[in-house]
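Case study 2.
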Amino acid sequence: MKAAIFSDPGKIAMQGDIPMPKAGPGEVIIKVEACGICGSDLAMYRTNAHRAGLNRVVNGLEIPGHEFAGTIMAVGDGVTDFQVGQKAVGVGMGGMAQYVPVPVNPYQLVAMPDGVSFVEAATTEPLADALQMVRLAEVQAGENVVVFGVGIIGLGVIQALKARTAPAGRIIAIDVSDSRLAMAKEVGATHTINPAREDVLKTVAAICGTQTAHMLVPPTDFPDVAVVIDCAGYIKHMKGDPPLQLALDMLRPAGGRIVCFGAYEGKFPIDFMPVINKQPTIRGSMGYAAEELAEALQLMASGKVDRRKLISNEFPLEQVQQAFETQANGVAIKVMLKPNAD
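Prediction:
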């Protein structure tokens, strides 16, 4: 079969002599119709970050891809809840291939409802990630929320905020890509900020107003931001303070929450005094609850969330290098590989 093989930063190519997988006990084989390029895939491609654990290794070759959708072609011993020919979403390693084995459990395999296309369904995992972040943030009605990084994950956070929680106050999207910021407005952000052109802290304060920290000497005003959801993490080549530092600086004086999801490509210095002064809650978020994988698909099927508009490009597996370069260009939102495209 054909599969994308990652070898070194900047080097990924299709190879056509990869052995076909076989369904082991408790597994199915999915014929992959669409596989998304994730931010963690991109970090691996750029700097070799997060390489371990992301890829399926076959004969010493590494196949990336962990968010995909397709048709079940074979079932292993003990599998009773899924059948050959059924459309399904898979979460696992090696999705940038024509066929991939997936363990049968509610975290990694879920049936596709009617009315959802393969490319939409391949965004199920990132939407489930977004649903978990919103759950962990515990957004209350009227609270102002800032979302750093509005690629597919951050846009999903905004969609989840609109579809799932009590009405937030202002939803501010921050990104260096104007096209992504435009999409953020389209899916529900009330305001956008491009840090390449604007002072983030001053602009956020102007949008949200301020609260005074009276316990500090002298008393100090901070933006009235209750929640920051960081989908950007730390990207080495980006200039300026990383989102986590800006998040600490912009939170209101007390009761603020930060949810960290974006990958970190390395270490960086940080001023931790706002943690002492403001006593925020900082939570990491990795993955999702099993029920959120199914919820993500139901939101698509019901029309409450439109994921099709977030698919910016589609490539056959033969053009995997071009697909990664497109995902890395700062303009694309979600690039899909179609391993079985004619």
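Residues 126-284 form a domain with the Rossmann fold fold (CATH 3.40.50.720).
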